[in-house]
């Protein structure tokens, strides 16, 4: 038979059978730097307690991990993408284009986003409006839109330290940035009354266009050095603060809790971030944590389903599990996630 006469479906069958015959025996995982320490702990325990090799866990960011998941099916592609934000429909569409038609969504717990500065620095009691007022490119003054000229935190709120504004925030490739944008910048913009001012000042053709422009203005940050995007992981942010003792940085709760000897955490709306305040719903800046599983690799890559089930076990992600000691807030709906994994239920479209 000539190659030109082999149907697409025949090629797919040949590829699948080749994959099954030559599958690797070590799980490949990549993605979120926030999820990385949790996944590493689980992977090491999995390798020690099961007859499977220790999975390879790498970072790279939530978006990059999801993109790698969607590269296709086969031993040359990863099995799991870790993510500190929920997958997007555009990711699901990309996956489908490349033959990854079934994805299992696993939400395993929650984490907080914290603001922290040098351990010997000033105390910060922040609100989303304070953070937005310090970092926004444009603000609303007397109902008009103007460039942000605040130099110190005290310029934004007289109760804050009179030190220069410098904040290291997650870059746009991070899952953390999505939560930071929506729960800090947008919320602060709305609380400050600027969103309405932006809508009123918009030249948009209709109400939807005005709202979209206002939304974008709320998320736009300064480019004068007061707000600095960090494209690396939290260790880079920590290094920046070590070199800039009066700066403030954005971290995941678990990373902060592993560096309390170096960092002092800020309150948000008067609430100290902790596993307890997040689990009670008191701390306002928290986010769910996920990983996404390529269903086509279950039963082909040895140990994949066993790893997922172990990750969700009481010993790992349960209320008294190993991961809580590292800042994970257990998911109250963990049992439902376990049932979905047991049934190998793929997620549906998001819209």
CATH homologous superfamily heading of the largest domain: Periplasmic binding protein-like II
Q: What's the CATH topology label of the largest domain?
A: D-Maltodextrin-Binding Protein, domain 2
Number of strands: 14
Report the sheet-strand fraction: 15-25%
The tally of domains stands at: 2
Helix content: 25-40%
Radius of gyration: 23 Å
The end-to-end span amounts to 43 Å
Which blocks of ≥5 consecutive residues have pLDDT under 50? 1-15
Along the chain, the helix and strand elements come as: HEHEHEHEEHEEHEHHHEHEHEEHEHEH
| DSSP helical segment count | 14
How would the global form be characterised?
globular
Average residue pLDDT: 91
| Helix/strand class | alpha/beta
- CATH classification class of the largest domain: Alpha Beta
| Biggest sheet statistics | 10 strands, mixed
CATH architecture of the largest domain, by name, is 3-Layer(aba) Sandwich
List descriptors.
19% strand; two-stranded parallel ribbon; 351 residues; disordered N terminus; 14 helices; alpha/beta; D-Maltodextrin-Binding Protein, domain 2
Question: Explain this structure to me?
Answer:
With 351 residues, this protein is of the alpha/beta class. It has 2 domains: 3-110 and 288-342, D-Maltodextrin-Binding Protein, domain 2 (3-Layer(aba) Sandwich); 112-286, 3-Layer(aba) Sandwich (D-Maltodextrin-Binding Protein, domain 2), CATH 3.40.190. The protein is built from 14 helices and 14 strands. The protein has helices at 8-21, 36-49, 62-69, 89-97, 128-135, 153-156, 175-191, 194-201, 207-219, 234-243, 253-257, 275-279, 304-311, 334-342; strands at residues 28-31, 56-60, 80-83, 103-118, 125-126, 138-141, 144-147, 167-170, 227-230, 248-252, 263-265, 267-268, 286-294, 329-330. Strands 1, 2, 3, 4, 8, 9, 10, 11, 13 and 14 form a 10-stranded mixed β-sheet that branches. Strands 5-12 form a two-stranded parallel ribbon. A two-stranded antiparallel ribbon has the order 6-7. α5 crosses α7 and α8 crosses α9.
């Amino acid at each position: 038979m000539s190659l030109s006469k082999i149907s697409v479906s025949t090629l797919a069958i040949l590829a699948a059978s080749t994959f099954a015959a030559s599958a690797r025996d070590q799980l490949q995982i990549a993605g979120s730097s926030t999820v990385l320490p949790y996944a590493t702990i689980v992977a090491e325990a999995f390798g020690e307690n099961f007859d499977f090799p220790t999975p390879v866990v790498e970072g790279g960011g939530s978006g990059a991990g999801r993109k790698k998941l969607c590269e296709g099916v086969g031993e040359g592609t990863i099995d799991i993408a870790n993510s500190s934000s929920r997958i997007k429909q555009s990711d699901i569409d990309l996956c489908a284009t490349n033959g990854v038609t079934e994805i299992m969504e696993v939400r395993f717990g929650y984490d907080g986003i914290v603001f922290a500065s040098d351990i010997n620095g000033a105390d910060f009691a922040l609100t989303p409006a304070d953070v937005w007022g310090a970092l926004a490119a444009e603000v609303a003054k007397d109902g008009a839109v103007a460039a942000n000229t605040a130099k110190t935190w005290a310029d934004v709120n007289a109760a804050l330290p009179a030190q220069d504004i410098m904040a290291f925030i997650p870059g746009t490739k991070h899952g953390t940035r999505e939560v930071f944008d929506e729960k800090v910048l947008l919320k602060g913009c709305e609380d400050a009354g600027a969103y309405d001012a932006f809508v009123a000042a918009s030249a948009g053709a209709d109400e939807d266009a005005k709202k979209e422009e206002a939304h974008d203005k709320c998320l736009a940050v300064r480019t004068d050095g007061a707000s600095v995007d960090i494209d690396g992981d939290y260790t880079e942010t920590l290094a920046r603060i070590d070199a800039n003792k009066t700066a403030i940085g954005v971290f995941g709760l678990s990373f902060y809790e592993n560096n309390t000897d170096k960092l002092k955490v800020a309150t948000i709306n008067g609430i100290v971030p902790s596993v307890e305040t997040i689990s009670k719903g008191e701390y306002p800046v928290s986010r769910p944590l996920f990983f996404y599983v390529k269903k086509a690799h279950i039963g082909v890559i040895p140990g994949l389903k066993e790893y997922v089930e172990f990750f969700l076990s009481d010993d790992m992600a349960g209320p008294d599990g190993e991961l809580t000691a590292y800042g994970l807030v257990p998911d109250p709906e963990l049992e439902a996630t376990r049932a979905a994994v047991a049934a190998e239920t793929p997620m549906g479209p998001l819209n």
